[in-house]
Amino acid sequence: MKNEYSLMELIRNGISYIVTKCFYRKARLIRLPFYIRGKKKIMYGEKFTTGYGCRLEAFDIKGEETTKINIGYNCRIGDHVHIAAGEQVFIGDNCLLASKIYISDIAHGNYSDSAFASNPNTPPNERELTTSPVRIGKNVWIGDNVCVLPGVTIGDGCVIGANAVVNKDIPKNSIAVGVPAKVVKFFDVEKQIWKNK
Length: 197
Fold this sequence. Notes:
Blueprint: H1 7-23, E1 29-30, E2 34-37, E3 42-44, E4 49-50, E5 54-58, E6 69-71, E7 76-77, E8 82-85, E9 89-91, E10 96-97, E11 102-104, E12 106-108, E13 129-131, E14 134-136, E15 141-142, E16 147-148, E17 153-154, E18 159-160, E19 165-166, E20 174-177, E21 182-188, E22 193-196
Parallel strand pairs: 1-4, 2-5, 3-6, 4-7, 5-8, 6-9, 7-10, 8-11, 9-14, 10-15, 11-16, 14-17, 15-18, 16-19, 18-20
Antiparallel strand pairs: 12-13, 20-21, 21-22
């Protein structure tokens, strides 16, 4: 696909390219504005590309000095993608993320049926933060406005349809859509075709 940019877009990309090569050397292109918090705890592979207004945040919730966000080789994320990690968000190689996606391993509070559950009378910002790692396999395509919640694993080769809310694991080579996301197709490896579930 040939991209034809306007003059203003070429200038913006040129400035972003210079900043990328000065501060994010392994990346292909980091489009500005780009918001990053906890840079030392964020790793990305070569050819990493972002759209405009992306936000990566790595928090020290448990005081661990480990990598919190790990993005693989040749990953491309669209405009206004927000990734937040307190424990770990892992994204495999060759993933393509559309725009306005939210991925986080953090929740404000515990909403289980245990004695440790958060009290609704406590303001949400004062509730204890909880974490559960998120893992996204390689060759995954995630559509616009998708929300990936804590504790989720998305297998290799998956497609997540636009506007989905992923609150449970999605097996490899599946297409999942909806709120909450449900598998509607899977790839038959023997026949090399997509089949309805």
